[in-house]
Amino acid sequence: MFDPRPLVDTATAIAREAGALVQRMRASAVVSFDTKSTSTDVVTAADRASEQLVRTRLSELRPGEPVLGEEEGGLDGRAVVEGLTWVVDPIDGTVNYLYGIPWYSVSIAAQLDGVSVAGAVFEPATGRMWTAARGYGSFLDGSPLRVSSTTDLSLSLLGYGFAYLPERRQRQADAWAQMAGRVRDLRRAGAASLDLCSVAAGRLDAYTEHGLGRWDWAAGGLIAAEAGAVVRLPGSSPELGEDATFAAAPGIADAMHGALVESGYGKV
Ligand code: IPD
């Protein structure tokens, strides 16, 4: 049987090295950046250097295996190809990185026929490493992770993110205002991979966001699922919107999903 665990070792080793580079670049001088689709869609020199490093190491350690990365793309414009591919977010949470908020990651996943089988999410600012292999559980620095056992929507903490387009953000804010009255509280932390890891650790009871790239959820989604979360990836939850990602502790997943639909979130 296919054992994905060696792929986790590869991902963690490379994520640590890329994370060290990202930290060195943060410490030196001014962080240079450009914007992409909108002013909230940012890329720094460190994003590009980190992706270059990850690609170089993967080509050395896993020659011939295709790589999809946030900054350079790949897979000839396709999201999924047959066989093993690597999916890389060289810095997830780039806006946090730009502002010196220590909540960003290097996220590396291996996917088999488009399904995540191994993942590592490394926090360069703290040195924490989140990992999972499909069928083998998920871990923070080697300690097993488990989602929260909450069963009460009104006592749940919901993480969320905003899409890039200003008009859509406004509609999302309206839906979030509705949700604020239904849950204990809301958190917009700014790094999707770490939001998903937070669900895995029970630091959030649920998390949802529209419009994520595959690199944002490929590792974190597996880490959440392996910790027991109900995970819906883009394309699998039309009531929340075709491009919705959703992860929740099983005890509140249905109630949270229903409340989000009622808030109008699925139509933003
Ligand atoms: C972004 C972060 C952010 C989320 C955005 C993502 P990036 O990733 O994960 O939390 O709201 O949708 O694009 O651009 O920093 O890699």
TrEMBL record:
It holds the Pfam family Inositol_P. It is an enzyme of class 3 (hydrolase). GO terms for biological process: inositol metabolic process; phosphatidylinositol phosphate biosynthetic process; signal transduction. Its cofactor is Mg(2+). Its EC number is 3.1.3.25. It catalyses: a myo-inositol phosphate + H2O = myo-inositol + phosphate. Mg(2+) binds at residues 70, 89, 91-92, 216. Belongs to the inositol monophosphatase superfamily. This is Inositol-1-monophosphatase.
